[in-house]
Amino acid sequence: MESRGEPAIRLTGLSKAFDGKVVLDRLDLTVAAGESIVVLGTSGTGKSVLLKHVIGLLQPDAGTVEISGEDFWKAPRMRRDRIRRKFGMSFQEGALFDSMSVGENIAFPLTRHTAKSPREIRERVTECLEMVRLPGIEAKRPSELSGGMRRRVGFARAIALAPEILLFDEPTTGLDPITTDVIMRVIEELGSRLNPTTVTITHDLKVAFAIADRVALLYGGKIALALPPEEFEKSDDPHAAAFVRGDSTLEPEDGREVAPPASPPPPPRGSATIGAEP
Amino acid sequence: MIRLLEAVGRGVLSVFDTLGRFFVLAARTASGVVRPPFAFRATALQVARVGADSVPVVVLTALFTGGVLALQTFKGFSRFHAEGYIGSVVALSMLRELGPVLTGLMVTGRAGSAMAAELGSMRVTEQIDALVTLATDPVQYLFVPRVLAGILVVPMLVVLADVTGILGGYLVAVAYLGANPVVYVENTFQFLDMEDLTSGLIKAAAFGGLLALIGCQSGFDTRGGAEGVGRSTTAAVVLGSLAILIADFFLTKVLF
Q1: What are the pLDDT digits (tens) for B213-222?
Q2: Contact B129 A95 (CB under 8 A)
Q3: Which of A264, A146, A150, A148 is nearest to A201 (CA)?
Q4: Which residue among A92, A97, A269 sits closest to B123, beta carbon to beta carbon?
Q5: A278–B138: do the CB atoms touch at under 8 Å?
Q6: At A7, is the secondary structure helix, strand, or coil?
Q7: Do A98 and B222 touch (CB under 8 A)?
């Protein structure tokens, strides 16, 4: 699966520290076009930070982010927004614009980045909502939706521009098993219908094994291993084993810097956003 | 001793950090104004919102301020038999100084804080990150309509405040202090210049831009959940008010 042309995403030597606390430490990761990779890691290992680097929400202290062979941070600002249009990102709680209706949320990227007519946009919105199995809720407000529905509307907004790369930030965290199952099926369906490159971060093994071509484990600021699901499950890597069995006693105490604090490191909105972009 | 110096140093650094960011964001907003896509509809919406939010409080403030001005001036001027100039004093003070400053402060409290709260909750619910992932510059998308609305609406509100303030003075002078209505009105406009009005409106536009920019920045830089949104809202009001009062001094010096 690797080695077919230019990889969709290539992270090289990625490092990021917040207030002196190292979160990513010379991390390397390559994702082939069309591949579905799931990044596992315990809470606070920097999974979200990793994902935010992929789409340029955070600028690395060191290292490069290449999207289809193009160095993201070397590109001029306008070009960066072009590159971002290749992406669709779904946020943990949906991150829907609560000043807009569901339909307006999904139409947002279409009205901003395409020359489609209002009718074409309406049709595309309907289509996207059907793909996430929520037909006919265009007029609802985000506040009227359940957590699972909000996330699926977030998916619909993310796929509106038919992106090449889909990013899922903890798509099932905090949802009941039934809703989790619905979300998993929707993700699988999107995968087979749109054939995107996907990066999913989660700590839910079931989700990981269901949708991944490759499962990666983030540990100590690096990708500790990345293997196909069957091999990952059987791996004798102590971190992977501890994770798969949910047994903290298996974690080796190797004195390696375990960067994460108890809660995810607060992204330094102030400083990171200034020189960088958002 | 060293710890004290460290604390002072940190404080100074953080002040300059905030100031520097303010100018960076101001520049990005300015460049966002001239760069497409242009946000006519969003700006109109903000104009309506800021205006509608602020009209009642601005009217009340100006009405009573005009009244108080008339009372106080009467108290002082009657000592040297200059009661005839109450109208002029009220009108001049309102147009040149109190109209813009009080309106600016009131709009900061209403609209500046609302901007900070809105952008702050967008920040903590990742909506601002979502904007970026949808290839939309959040500064352009969120700041530009609000700052333009501030620049446009506050002068309009100031005109309203000027009129109500003068009306407040008139009511007090005529109904309570027994001034002759015709003489009072004549007196009001006797020494007024067009320049009194325009200098007030220039101030108003500056205050409007400032308070909107500060409200947006406070919200945009929010960290730490609901509590952070509360802090940002407070910061928007405190910093916005301070900025208006400081800017007022310098603008008055320039426009004198």
Answers
A1: 999 999 999 9
A2: yes
A3: A264
A4: A269
A5: yes
A6: coil
A7: no
Per 3-state DSSP, chain A is made up of helix, strand and coil in percentages (nearest 5) of 40, 20, 40
Rounded CA-CA distance B72/B67 in Å is 9
Q: Which DSSP state fits A142? A: G
From residue B111, alpha-carbon distances to A2, A171, B46, B64 in Å are: 54, 36, 10, 21
C-alpha A101: how far from chain center = 24
From A255's Cα to the closest Cα of chain B, the distance in A is 31
d(CA A199, CA A53): 12
Please name the residues between 87 and 116 in chain A that touch chain B, using a CB distance below 8 Å: 87-89, 91-93, 95-99, 108-109, 112-113
Q: Which residues of B125-144 are buried (b: 16+ CB within 10 A; e: fewer)?
A: bbbbbbbbbbbbbbbbbbbb
The span from the CA of B161 to the CA of B165, in Å, is: 6
Residues A58 and A49 sit within 8 Å (Cβ to Cβ):
yes
Say whether A269 and B222 touch across the interface (CB within 8 A): yes
- Does A137 reside within a domain? no
Number of domains present in the structure of chain A: 1
| B146 at A interface, C-beta within 8 A | no
User: CB of B235 within 8 A of CB of B119?
Assistant: no
Asked if residues A5 and A63 have their Cβ atoms less than 8 Å apart, the reply is no
What is the pTM assigned to this prediction? Answer: 0.84
Q: How far apart are CA B55 and CA B161, in angstroms?
A: 9
Task: Give the range with max mean pLDDT: A199-213, A229-243, B4-18, B49-63.
Answer: B49-63
Residue of B126, B138, B222 lying closest to A91 (CB–CB): B126
Pairing of strands A9-18, A21-31: antiparallel
Q: Does A276 touch chain B (CB under 8 A)?
A: no
φ, ψ dihedrals at A86, nearest 5°: -75, -15
Can you read off the two tokens belonging to residue A218? 């983030």
The nearest alpha carbon in chain A to B223 belongs to A269
Q: Establish if A278 belongs to a structural domain.
A: no
Q: Looking at residue B38, what is its pLDDT? A: 81
Domain of residue A68: give its range. 1-84+199-257
Report the CATH number that the domain containing residue A6 is assigned in CATH.
3.40.50.300
Question: Strand, helix or coil at B115?
Answer: helix
Asked if the structure places residue A161 within a domain, the reply is no
Question: What are the tens digits of pLDDT across the range B92-139?
Answer: 999 999 999 999 999 999 999 999 999 999 999 999 999 999 988 899
Contact list, A85 vs chain B (CB under 8 Å): 135
Q: Does the ipTM exceed 0.85?
A: no
Task: State pLDDT tens for residues A54-95.
Answer: 998 899 998 889 898 889 898 888 888 888 988 999 998 889
Q: What is the pLDDT of residue A245?
A: 81
In three-state form (DSSP H/G/I as H, E/B as E, the rest C), the secondary structure along A53-96 is HHCCCCCCCEEEEEECCEEHHHCCHHHHHHHHCCEEEECCCCCC
